[in-house]
Write a structure and sequence with these properties.
Elements lengths: L43 H8 L2 H15 L2 E11 H18 L5 H15 L6 E11 L2 E2 L3 E3 L1 H22 L2 H12 L3 H16 L24 E12 L16 E8 L6 H17 L4 H15 L21 H20 L9 E5 L7 H15 L3 E4 L1 H7 E3 L6 E10 L7 E13 L11 H12 L3 E3 L2 H6 L2 H7 L4 H8 L7 H12 L5 E3 L6 H11 L7 E4 L11 H9 L2 E2 L10 E2 L1 H4 L3 E4 L6 E7 L2 E21 L12 E16 L13 E3 L1 E3 L1
Parallel strand pairs: 4-22, 7-8, 7-11, 11-12
Antiparallel strand pairs: 1-2, 3-18, 5-6, 5-19, 9-10, 10-11, 13-17, 14-17, 15-16, 18-19, 19-20, 20-21
Length: 681
């Protein structure tokens, strides 16, 4: 599960911090002798790539991306020659003055004044200005084979994970106890947890002595607000364990294992919807192209293996890219939340609907994904969307002390004419606060942003996510839920009285079936956790684990020798006592967890960046399943209102990301992976 720092998140929102370099196919060996023709040996998979109509496919993909908004925003800084602009302005102003010579002298005077203003606007010989442009998002040229059974499994457990987040978010004791080790070494998670405790359980956020410095002087209405979750659970395929040599005759199919659960700013729902449409288009138009079909069938064979006696390597009429409902269902969830808010808190207001607020990062570049969702909300459901950063909200947002209604000042595109006047604004009531920022320490430049976060949380506006949902996304919570009996206990204690034990056990088994191996490095370590550390440092099994901090966005994990070196600095073994577990410095390693490293089957992929073929080679893929949930809190009065009520809970589409096999990280937004689609087989 993820939360806490810079994306994907996912969870991905900073676009392409690093660019994945073009990859030479490892299966191609070239003779460096210039006097002879190069000798090239290629695997069967590489030959299939060589036979693809790459230029035609890439051109179609790039055009489709441009037309349908599969784009990322880029920024470039231009150096401007101000002397040149100064001359242009002079010429332009002279022309303007000439064109008004037939008018009154006042007009001429106004033109002269304008000339003077423009002449003095450029005082240096050169400066810089930033310009934006859009280009094709990083995508896989063709979809990637994925077992239909695993895809259905991910769809099935999506509502269960939604409900699990809701349950855990309401258990303050579990969250506080679980995150205690983390908050001692991770200031960001500590801030979030303390704010959660102050607002929802201590009700002292306005205490001048509160440790968060988030005093907003605002009455706390947070417990009355609905809770909206737009989550994404990410998975990889992993080989099932086999016993003995006899098992190799029929290798079992790979199983689905969870990488993380994103509970805030789960991105790329809109773009992945369009990418699936692109791949459906390419597959349809290439239905009779033997090279494309051979490529798809080879990848099908690579994924399914030889686990069945039935030949699954031929084209099946059911094979293909499924419809992706992510854009539609994510927008619907936001619409439903706004509608329910209006019914609860503004039943008599008809002249102006409230707005949906997107909290975004300053200088946001993942705008296409966000704007597509915004346009869907406005065009299909009729809600206005406003976008502001936490910094802007620190001055524009207010909460009514009597009603708890959140309003923000919307700039109206003009300024007052009197000297020193501020921008003209209009107050808008906010129904839903949807965070596409706030998951990273870098989103909080100082106390102003934290106070803005606290102010939004204290209102009756529906938050996606609320602080409780945000915290459930931490990797430490993911690890704690995987402990034997913990998941089952939480489900049993927080499930409706009418739910049968067998139903709880069945739900727990379905969730647990996708858990990977997870191990703590805090003071709550047990035998299996120490065994994982010893396997890495004493048995050379560094390739079987990943070291993960409470961070999101790609680029923060440790693998292989890097992981081993970091652990070795803070782990001491007792040479004279093999039975004594090693001493682990929890004050440093407590913010990390160890996770079983997953090894999805490889298949051939052709990746595009900026609309151009970047390269081809062995690749692995990660499937994300979106889920949405809307919950009305219990009022604490009346038999029917004491407990929270789930108003909406569903699977909400998918995302697939593909990267070359040698790349450890997997974030599209961080520049490690590309957007793709599952080709269900």
């Amino acid at each position: 599960m993820t939360t806490t720092t810079a994306a994907e998140h996912d969870e991905d929102e900073e676009i392409e911090k690093t660019v994945l370099a073009s990859v030479n196919d490892d299966d191609v060996v070239e003779d460096d002798d210039d006097d002879e023709d190069p000798v090239i040996t290629m695997s069967e998979e590489a030959r299939l790539v060589d036979q693809l109509p790459l230029d035609s496919l890439a051109a179609t993909a790039s055009s489709f991306a441009s037309v349908h908004g599969i784009l990322v925003e880029r920024r470039q800084t231009d150096h401007v020659n101000n002397n040149h602009l100064h001359n242009i302005n002079n010429n332009s102003n002279s022309n303007n003055a000439t064109s008004t010579n037939t008018g009154s002298s006042n007009n001429n005077n106004n033109n002269n004044n304008n000339n003077n203003n423009k002449d003095t606007s450029f005082t240096s010989s050169s400066s810089t200005r930033q310009q934006s442009y859009f280009e094709c998002a990083p995508i896989s040229l063709l979809p990637n084979a994925f077992p239909r059974s695993a895809f259905v499994q991910a769809q099935t457990v999506a509502p269960l994970f939604n409900q699990l987040v809701e349950i855990v978010s309401q258990d303050a004791t579990f969250l506080t106890t679980t995150l205690q080790q983390v908050v001692e070494v991770d200031p960001f998670t500590a801030k979030l947890l303390h704010l959660y405790q102050d607002i929802y359980h201590n009700n002292n956020v306005n205490n001048n002595n509160n440790s968060n410095n988030t005093n907003t002087n605002t009455k706390n209405f947070a417990p009355q607000a609905d809770r909206l979750g737009l989550f994404r659970s990410d998975y990889m395929l992993h080989p099932q364990p086999t016993e003995g040599e006899a098992a190799t005759a029929a290798t079992p199919p790979p199983t689905l294992k969870q990488v993380e659960l994103n509970t805030i700013a789960a991105s790329f729902g809109a773009l992945s919807t369009r990418v699936a449409a692109l791949h459906r288009h390419l597959i349809t138009t290439a239905a009779t192209d033997e090279a494309v079909q051979a490529f798809l069938q080879q990848n099908k064979k690579a994924i399914l293996g030889d686990h069945t006696a039935v030949d699954n390597h031929e084209k099946n009429d059911d094979d293909g890219v499924p419809e992706n409902c992510a854009l539609d269902r994510l927008a619907f969830a936001l619409h439903l939340a706004a509608q329910h808010f209006q019914t609860r808190f503004l039943p008599c207001v008809v002249e102006e609907k409230p707005v949906i607020l997107f909290v975004v990062q300053p200088g946001e570049t993942n705008t296409a994904d966000q704007r597509l969702l915004e346009f869907q909300i406005t065009q299909v459901h009729g809600w206005r969307v406003l976008r502001q950063s936490l910094t802007e909200l620190s001055t524009s947002a207010t909460v009514n002390p009597d009603t708890g209604l959140l309003t923000i000042a919307e700039p109206m595109g003009g300024t007052a004419t009197t000297p020193g006047a501020t921008t003209i604004t209009q107050q808008r009531t906010v129904a839903v606060v949807y965070y596409r920022a706030g998951y990273a320490p870098t989103d909080y430049f100082g106390p102003a942003e934290w106070k803005a976060r606290a102010l939004l949380e204290q209102s009756v506006a529906t938050k996606s996510p609320c602080l409780g949902y945000h915290l459930v996304g931490t990797k430490k919570v993911q690890q704690a839920l995987a402990r034997p009996g913990v998941l089952e206990s939480l489900l049993q204690n927080h499930t409706d009285a009418g739910t049968k034990l067998e139903q709880v056990e069945q739900a727990a088994a379905m969730l647990r079936s996708v858990f990977a191996g997870l191990y703590t490095l805090g003071s709550d370590m047990v035998e299996e956790d120490y065994a994982a550390v010893q396997a890495i440092l004493q048995q050379g099994q560094d390739s079987k684990y990943v070291l993960k901090p409470q961070r999101e966005g790609g680029g923060y994990n440790f693998y292989g020798k890097q992981m081993e070196e970091r652990l070795r600095l803070h782990v001491t073994f007792h040479d004279n006592d093999d039975n004594k577990p090693p001493t682990v410095d929890h004050s440093v390693l407590g913010e990390f967890i160890l996770m079983q490293r997953l090894f999805p089957p490889e298949q051939r992929a052709v990746l595009l960046r900026s609309g151009q073929v970047e390269g081809s080679g062995p690749s692995i893929s990660e499937l994300g399943c979106f889920g949405t949930i809307l919950v009305r809190p219990g009022t604490g009065t009346g038999d029917n209102d004491k407990t929270s009520k789930i108003l909406h809970n569903e699977y909400a589409g998918f995302l697939m990301r593909t990267k070359f096999s040698h790349v450890d990280e997997g974030g599209v937004a961080a520049g490690f992976a590309t957007l793709s689609s599952p080709y269900l087989v």
